[in-house]
Amino acid sequence: MRLDFSRSFDLGDRSIRRCICGCTFLIAILTLVLPLAAQDVDAIITSENRKPATIADEIHDPAERAAFLALFQKNSPSKKLLLAQEFLRSYSQSAFLATTYEIAARSSFDLNESKSGLEYARQSLALLPENPLFLVAVADVQAREHLNDIAISNARDALDYLDRFTRPVAITEADWPEIKRSQQAIAHFALGRALIQKAIQQPTGALRSSLFDQAGESLSQARALNPADTEIAYLLGEDYLFSDDLTHAAAEFAFVYRQPGQFAPQAKEQLQLIYNAGKPSVKGNFEAFVDEAARHAPSAPSTAAPSTESASQHHDYAGSAACKTCHGGIYRQWDQSGMSKMLRSYQPENVIGDFTSNNEFYAGDDIAYRNGNLQITPAPDRALFARMVLRNGRHFFDIKQSDGHWHSYPVDYIIGSKWQQAYATTLPNKQIHVFPIQYNTIEKRWLNYWKVIDSAGTTRSNPYNWEQFSIATNYKANCAICHTSQLRNVKGGSLDADNLVFREPGIGCEMCHGPSATHIAAISTGETYRKGPLDPPVQFNRLNNRDFVSICAQCHLQSNVHAANSAGELNYSSTATFFLRNASVPFDEFSRKGFYKDGRFSQTTFIVEALERSQCFRKGNASCGSCHDPHSHNGPSNNTSLKFKDDPDRMCVNCHTQLADKTAAAAHTHHTSDSEASRCVSCHMPRIMDALLFRARSHQIDDIPNAEMTMRFGQADSPNACILCHTEKTAEWVQGKLQSWKSTASPTAPTISAMQAHSNRATLAKQ
User: Fold this and answer.
1) What domains, with CATH codes, occur in the chain?
2) Which 3-state string (H, E, C) describes 411-477?
3) Using one digit for the tens of pLDDT, what is the confidence trace for 474-484?
4) pTM given for the model
């Protein structure tokens, strides 16, 4: 007998608050860390050296700082909301709006002001979309408000980010598993609820059934994560009803009915309906039926995500030279690439720094890189710190130390080969230390690069700290994870610099393709063997884009928390999958130097993080290999290793085929097809990321010029692609142009509004 239970489904405002989703939760974890130091950009992060975070010590205006700190006092939600609103009015160009909007949203949720709370949430997530704990609360509210599609999207993002990011630094290792489990349960519940609500709106058919099935899967996960929650069990019972699974529906309702709480009467009502519908085949009275139903409760499903890891074991690395026999052409290309030259033992011919003429460095000068320009202001008390010299054909650093004497150190290692080159020396104790001064090939001068990119006061940015030979200048502790192959602590554990060894300098073949000894042995004997996509040596054309990017992310993801496995292996694994899937540090723990005020990344160390924000990655199949060839050797003419350097639009129109036609492309870009302004990358990947003293392209690929952001924050803090070319124009002019283009857009080409709908940076409302 088919029962219609849709009339009964409406949890409405009866929803139990399963978490501290209001402002108290945020305040509890942030007030602990406000006075402490933010995470440096362009620095290796491990569980041992990870810094407690702050978002307040970089506010230089005392009034703004005081107003911001006031948001974290133990006030009522109404008071906190008023303080947040006042901050938004008074400091509408602050770099700390994401947190302020979040506080306003959570306060509004606590006051049951869902509509305004969700608008504040939208603006917070436009600036910092990777905020899983907040996304959980937002998705929960959206599901209660029947905003199903956005609730589904946010709940799924929250679950993805909860898996991707490590704990906020203010939450202890002991507390995080339970908090994470609770948040995952809420996200799965919100997702299941929104899916059911969406399914009810569909006509009978495959889509409706699929939505109910998806809801059941998510609610089962929530049930396993929080088995005592009667609301989850009740909603899961509803989903079973819609799927005509009366046995399991009755089991869930029986559990709820036996527990004290607000859903027990509703569960009893549902059980009564099922009991009455089953007569006369149901044996015994109603209570006996409930007892029998309870025995059919489904076993808890696994909460682990489906594994894409290879089940096979890999043990032996053969070294890059072993690949040369069969792959000679590719090996020669790699050998001339930047990958192989990340670290090399000293050879005079590989040095590109000026050791003969412009070879002095003065400490004390003010140095900054602003808006794409290096600015060095000589200080009146500047002092000669180092001379880089050539003696008898050998390169040396002569450094004047605190004892007043010059100390000479030979160059033993060379780091880098393209835009900037650093140098290292081996001390008598065998430690390798990196000189604090680097040579920039663009500026053709020696400089203190760390002073350019660091917040004030870091150890490495003060060249006089060199003579301490501390962990701050130790090569193996700071650089080797991403500049060498197969780095291992021979005594186990993490970055204990004196016990670290690497198999090869530079990035060898097996860092990307995996251990090859088994493959070489099989080829040598003519044996055949089955090989999955992640079984080494990896063929990248067989990988999905997420696995592809994960391999590159080992070095190109700034937020990596590097940790050794049980064998002490730090950037590889000799068992299971060969590359390590590291968790990420929450982005709001980094120095604000890594971000523009509009939320976009400003440093190329966040290149993978930027790509992972784009819809090309999230919904398409874009990967690093869509545009780049890591074996490329034709630098310096192609230092970025582009596949289609002379025809960059191919990187986009291979997927966006409707714009392959030049006429359609010109109509879309509103510029002549042969102009630089008509290239896809000019608007969607503008040069706004700081690299080694040059501007690189943003890798948040679906970025589009956002005039309102630039009007709010200014071109320096929200660089607009249009104004990068039309330097004499204003953001208001850009807004007028975009609006006029929107009104005349071709129906066959993507419109500004259509692209904006897919952008992760929704326009901030004016305050």
Assistant:
1) 6-215 (1.25.40.10), 228-299 (no CATH), 344-470 (no CATH), 484-545 (no CATH), 587-757 (no CATH)
2) CCEEECCCCEEEEEEECCCCCEEECCCEEECCCCEEECHHHHHCCCCCCCCCHHHHHHCCHHHEHHH
3) 999 999 999 99
4) 0.89
